[in-house]
Amino acid sequence: MLVKRSSFVVVTFVMMITLLVLTDDSILSGVITFTVIMVGYIIISIKRSKKRLGLLNEKCDPEAFLERTEKQMEITGKNAKLQAYLNVDKAAALVCMGEYQEGKNLLLSIDKSKLSTKNGTLLVFTINLICCLYELGEIAEAEGIFERELFNITLDSVPITKAPFKRAIKFLNAERDYILGKYEESQTAFEELLNEKSDKRTHVSALYGLAKIHEKLGEVEKAKEMYKEVSEEGNKLYIAKVAKRKVEEMD
């Protein structure tokens, strides 16, 4: 990445010199070069972010995602807002690794005033915190946040109409229904998620949710089949490890 960045700087410098020679206008050359640099850095940043998120969402590798996120935090420096955004990502990695208490602690350490409803970071923060609380058995606290905060956040969140955020909310509702013993509603939501076009992590997580329901209802063969697929497709996700153990227990 450092080589690419250095190459980009060299190219823009050469371009500025070329423009200066051709136009003999230092101001125009400077403006054009500055614009190209800004656009270039934005494109590089977007590509880097997409590749980093792909480690979690497509490769199902929260460990690699965590490592890349921590490196990105070093690059970002002391920008408090960007650090808060990246800590939300870091917490997501911990959740996907089954480190729910550590994920909760990290989320609670984040300054929420640095997050935004406009870009969805506050929404993701809240969903991840609720998921941590459910997994830790802190149901009453999770329900309190769900009922007090989540609805208002979704009303104010601009990205709520975007597919990834809609899926995240649907997944949370499906998980909540399961926790509250509403298995029929939970199953319907997980099946809808399973049939939607989504990233691999969402697909595997929905399959895992369905496997839990089938196991709870005593449908062992269906549960085993789904757990097997989760264990094979989930790579380094914590649920893949749990699913593998479930399959072994059911043999």
Automatic annotation (TrEMBL):
Q: Does the keyword Lyase apply?
A: no
Pfam families reported for this sequence: TPR_8
Keywords attached to this entry: Membrane, Transmembrane, Transmembrane helix
The lineage's top-level taxon is Bacteria
Keyword Transmembrane helix appears in the UniProt entry: yes
Which regions span the lipid bilayer?
7-22, 28-46
User: SUPFAM superfamilies annotated for this entry?
Assistant: TPR-like (SSF48452)
InterPro entries the record matches: TPR-like_helical_dom_sf (IPR011990), TPR_rpt (IPR019734)
Q: What is this protein called?
A: Tetratricopeptide repeat protein
Report the source organism: Oceanirhabdus seepicola
